[in-house]
Amino acid sequence: MASWLPETLFEIVGQGPAPSKDYYQLLVTRSQVIFRWWKISLRSEYRSTKPGEAKESHEEFLENSHLQVQIALIFGARILDYVFNLCEGKFDFLERLSDNLLLNIISYLDLEDIARLSQTSRRFAQLCMSDELWEKIVQSACDTITPDMRALAKDIGWRQMFFTNKLQLQRQLRKRKQRQGSQINNKF
Question: Which residue has the higher pLDDT, 113 or 18?
Answer without folding.
Answer: 113
